[in-house]
Write a structure and sequence with these properties.
The chain is α+β, with helices and mostly antiparallel strands. It has three helices and four strands, in the order αββαβαβ. It is 37% helix and 34% strand.
Length: 105
């Protein structure tokens, strides 16, 4: 029973032992925004609404989507490579959007 408890805690803790190598849990915020020149109707309508509410000094509003991703990896480079792949395959449309990865902590 004791050894099962230790293995369970080791597996489900923030640091996971995988195939003899320690893997750390890392957190990244992934910002997805429209490329320059692409229409941003959400940002434009928000700007219009803010001006109607009296916020006349606002020059521009852009809609940006943020994903917070927690990932287990052996290194930050490995994690960043995998997150870039996520962005290219699902999170961002490379034709009209760009992404930026910011690490937390």
């Amino acid at each position: 029973m004791g050894i099962l408890f230790v293995l369970f805690n080791l597996f489900y803790s923030h640091q996971v032992f995988i195939l003899g190598k320690l893997s750390a849990s890392m957190i990244a915020d992934v910002y997805i925004e429209l490329k320059e020149g692409v229409a941003d109707p959400e940002g434009e309508s928000t700007l219009k609404a803010l001006r109607l509410l009296g916020f006349k000094r606002v020059k521009k509003v852009s809609a940006v989507k943020v994903f917070r991703i927690e990932i287990d990896a052996k290194s930050r480079e490995e994690a960043e490579k995998e997150i870039k792949e996520m962005c290219e395959k699902l999170l961002a449309n490379p034709v009209i959007q760009r992404f930026k990865i910011n690490w937390i902590g």
